[in-house]
Amino acid sequence: MGISYSSTSKVEAAVVIVVVVVVVVVVAVALVEEMLYVYSRSISVCNSVYSETISVSNSVYGERTSVSNSVYNECTSVSNSVYSECFSVFNSVYCESTTVSNSVYSESIFVSNSVYSESISVSNSVYSECTSVSSSVYSESISMSNSVYSKCTSLSTLEPDSVYGITPIYY
C-alpha cells in the first residue's frame, strides 16, 4: 500500500514551497543589502580586554577601539561630509574632532591632565586657532576675520613682567 496524493494536495504543496523560497530569498537579499552597508567586528581578550567595532551604514563610518587597563578608546564617524575622531587614553585623554561642511572646517584636540586643547575653524574666510596647556600654562589664540589678526601668548610660570601679549590689527 502506498500513499497517494491528489492534484489539489500537489498544488498546495507547490504553493507552500514557492512561498518558503520567496521568504528565504527576501530575507537573504535584505541580509546582503545590510552587509553591504553595515559592517561590524568585535574582538575581546579576557584580562587584556580588547574590543573593536566598525560599522558602515549610509556613508556613516564609526569605529571604536578600547583596551581596558591600557584604556584606549577611538571613535571615528563620517556623516554628510562631517568627520569626527576621538582618542582617549585614561590619564592622558586625547580627543580630536574635524568637521567639514559647506566650506567650513573645524578641528579640536583635547588632552586632559596634559591638558592640551586646540581648536581650528575656517568659515567664510574666517580663521581662528586657540591652543592652551594648563600647568605649563601656555595659551595662544589666533583669529582672522575681515583682515583682522590677533595673537596672545601667556606663560603663568613666568614673572608678571615676562608675560606678554601681542595683538596686531590690520585693516
Topology:
Elements: H1 7-37, E1 50-57, E2 60-67, E3 72-79, E4 82-89, E5 94-101, E6 104-111, E7 116-123, E8 126-133, E9 138-144, E10 149-155, E11 164-166
Antiparallel strand pairs: 1-2, 2-3, 3-4, 4-5, 5-6, 6-7, 7-8, 8-9, 9-10, 10-11
Transmembrane segments: 13-32
Keywords: Membrane, Transmembrane, Transmembrane helix
Protein name: VIR protein
Question: Strands of the biggest beta sheet: in what spatial order?
Answer: 1-2-3-4-5-6-7-8-9-10-11
| Largest sheet composition | 11 strands, antiparallel
Compute the CA-based radius of gyration: 29 Å
Mean pLDDT level: 45
**What characteristic shape results from the CA principal axes?**
elongated
The share of residues in helices is 10-25%
Derived from helix and strand composition plus strand pairing, the structural class reads alpha+beta
Q: Encode the helix/strand succession as letters.
A: HEEEEEEEEEEE
User: How large is the count of helical segments?
Assistant: 1
| Beta fraction | over 45%
Beta strand count: 11
Low-confidence stretches: 33-171
N→C terminal distance? 106 Å
Protein name: VIR protein
Keywords: Membrane, Transmembrane, Transmembrane helix
Transmembrane segments: 13-32
Question: How would you describe this protein?
Answer:
The chain crosses the membrane at residues 13-32. This is VIR protein. It comes from Elysia marginata. The structure is a single chain. It contains one helix and eleven strands. The chain is α+β, with helices and mostly antiparallel strands. The chain has an eleven-stranded antiparallel β-sheet with strand order 1-2-3-4-5-6-7-8-9-10-11. β1 and β2 form a beta hairpin. The termini are far apart. Mean pLDDT is 45; it is low at 33-171.
